[in-house]
Design brief:
- The chain is of the alpha/beta class and 439 residues long.
- The chain has two domains: 271 residues, 3-Layer(aba) Sandwich (Aminopeptidase); 154 residues, Alpha-Beta Plaits (2-Layer Sandwich).
- Helices cover 36% and strands 24% of the residues.
- The strands form four sheets. It has a six-stranded mixed sheet, sandwiched between helices. Strands 8, 9, 14, 15 and 17 form a five-stranded mixed sheet that branches. Strands 11-12-10-13 form a four-stranded antiparallel sheet, with helices on one face.
- A hairpin with a 2-residue loop joins strand 8 and strand 9.
- Helix 1 crosses helix 3, helix 3 crosses helix 14 and helix 8 packs antiparallel against helix 9.
- The two termini are 33 Å apart.
- The structure holds zinc ion (ZN).
- The site of zinc ion has 5 residues, from loops.
Length: 439
């Protein structure tokens, strides 16, 4: 079997293991990967931190002449509703040049590629330690990586990390533009609660309606519009994107960035909206609950907001922003998740190797750092001062809007071409960075 067929089979098998989180059941994927590696003579370890929930890792020793590298991935996926899919989400079907299944892009394809590259490098002479970690629970809080860092940090820690979160190439009027995720927005999920007092629904004047009290809060969240700020690293990417799409950025002031991005959104809603979200604070009301019965005046209402902030926003600044937004209203505020933005430096040897490796595969392409709009496990490493890069190289096929909706959406699939591309680039990166005959 060719290595390409091997990779397709590895991914197809991984996609057939249902690791929907919750509940996860990542132990099944970890066990499968251990057996797969073992068949190729590579030892690995499984660490189960809860019943059915396990991480897989392996570490091969380098000579110590160079830095160590961790290939990081997660094996869990978000749930999929089979009724909405053309091909069952856990079939791993290979059809018309595509491999289908929940996780095909986010991120079992990268699990497969990293595992393959690791197995091929494991018996080579390496300058530094090479580490593989396929972690559980990324989609629901990152318990897998957290547990590894708490209990077995020494086994997985490395000088650099490559993970998901970037690496997407879009074809612009002026060629391919790829991103590499070097920063993450901060995540501040919060809940506001309003209180009232119950009464019979037929005589509303006797009670105080908590839903009515929520109305002005919800309105202010809806009306909130974060300004697009020229913050790096995202601005570097967005500026290139606008230029390469033929939109002039030379003479626009800060307020006009949004006009340009709206224009971009007219051509490709996915590109325009993502670029906007990278540069601004967003507040999305995601859940609202109030009332207990048809004929009771509700005495409690809860609104949950998914708030994300670009680099430069501390916890303090976010709190002030939220209390400012609700100024003059009566409510209680509670944070569900508080995670400040994280940033990795761009001027590192690994960054340059990634750039060169990409250019070898796609001559003339451009690579720019970004802050991706969502969060990944990279943040734990960045907080320790370890440069972590989101780089899962893929060439976006067609419209970015349609493409990006496959992740956490319906009919997720990856072309064999793209899987192979991801493999070729990452193999080149690891080989160039770790092999003694390079650099
Ligand atoms: Zn993911």
């Amino acid at each position: 079997m060719s290595s390409r067929d091997n990779l397709v089979k590895l991914l197809s098998n991984l996609l057939q293991i249902d690791t929907s989180n919750p509940p996860g059941n990542e132990s099944n994927a970890a066990g499968f990967l251990r057996d797969w590696l073992s068949e190729r003579g590579v030892e690995s370890e499984i660490v189960e931190f809860e019943k059915g929930r396990a991480n897989l890792f392996s570490r091969v020793k380098g000579s110590g002449e160079g830095p160590s590298l961790l290939l990081l991935s997660h094996t869990d996926v978000v749930p999929a509703d089979p009724a909405r899919w053309k091909i069952p989400p856990f079939s791993g079907a290979v059809k018309d040049g595509y491999i289908w299944g929940r996780g095909a892009l986010d991120m079992k394809s990268m699990v497969a590629v990293e595992t393959m590259v690791f197995s091929e490098m494991a018996d080579k002479r390496l300058k530094g330690d090479l580490v593989l970690l396929a972690a559980a629970d990324e989609e629901k809080g990152g318990l897998g990586v957290k547990k590894m860092l708490e209990n077995s940090m020494g086994k997985i820690i490395a000088d650099y990390v490559i993970n998901e979160g970037g690496g997407e190439g879009v074809l612009t009027k002026k060629g391919w533009l790829f991103d590499i995720q070097t920063a993450e927005r901060g995540v501040f999920w919060y809940r506001v609660q309003t209180r009232g007092s119950p009464a019979h629904g037929s005589v509303p004047g006797l009670g105080v309606n908590a839903i009515e009290r929520m109305r002005p809060l919800l309105n202010r969240v809806s009306e909130f519009k974060g300004a697009c700020e020229r913050v790096d690293p995202s601005w570097r990417y967005v500026e290139s994107l606008l230029k390469m799409m033929g939109l002039s950025v030379e003479e626009v002031d800060v307020n006009n960035i949004e006009i340009l991005l709206n224009k971009l959104a007219e051509t490709d809603r996915g590109l325009g909206e993502s670029a906007k979200a990278m540069l601004q604070v967003t507040m999305t009301p995601t859940m609202i609950h109030g009332g207990v019965k048809e004929n009771v005046v509700p005495y409690e209402c809860n609104l949950t907001v998914d708030c994300r902030v670009p680099p430069g926003y501390s916890k303090e600044r976010v709190k002030n922003m939220i209390t400012g937004l609700f100024h003059g209203l009566e409510y209680e505020l509670e944070f569900i998740q508080e995670s400040e933005p994280t940033v990795s430096p761009v001027d590192t040897p690994l960054y340059r190797v990634i750039e060169n490796s990409l250019l070898k595969q796609v001559p003339g392409a451009r690579l720019e750092p970004t802050t991706k709009t969502g969060g990944t496990d990279s943040r734990y490493f960045r907080r320790m001062g370890i440069p972590a890069y989101g780089f899962q190289p893929l060439m976006v096929e067609g419209n970015y809007y349609e493409w990006s909706r496959m992740m956490h959406g319906d009919n997720e699939r990856i072309s064999i071409e793209n899987l192979d591309f991801c493999y070729r680039v990452l193999k080149q990166v690891v080989d160039s960075f770790m092999s003694p005959h390079h650099g």
